Automatic annotation (TrEMBL):
This is DNA-binding protein S1FA. The chain crosses the membrane at residues 31-55. Belongs to the S1FA transcription factor family. Keywords: DNA-binding, Membrane, Nucleus, Repressor, Transcription, Transcription regulation, Transmembrane, Transmembrane helix. Residues 61-76 have a biased composition (Basic residues). Pfam families: S1FA. It is found in: Nucleus.
Length: 86
């Protein structure tokens, strides 16, 4: 009976790494998802930076909003200048 199932003095560590039903073959799905997500974020960040650099070099600066005459008069009064006409 004992010879049918093998002897008990066989070291089980001798069979590690020889393949079998338990061993998974292929890519780790968690690692694959991580690589895809990190790659997408990296491409997005590099693309945004490239667009920013291009815009700084090639697009004209924004025009400032014109300041109304009423606000200019108020600022002059605050700074201590005499109003025109007095």
């Amino acid at each position: 009976m004992a010879d049918e199932f093998g002897s008990a003095d066989v070291d089980p560590s001798a069979f590690i790494g020889q393949g079998g039903i338990d061993q998974k073959v292929g890519f780790n799905p968690g690692l694959t998802v991580l690589v895809v997500v990190v790659g997408a974020v990296l491409i997005f960040a590099v693309g945004n930076y490239m667009l920013y650099v291009y815009a700084q070099k090639h697009l004209p600066p924004r025009k400032k909003k014109p300041v109304s005459k009423k606000k200019l008069k108020r600022e002059r009064l605050k700074s201590g200048m005499a109003p025109a006409g007095d």
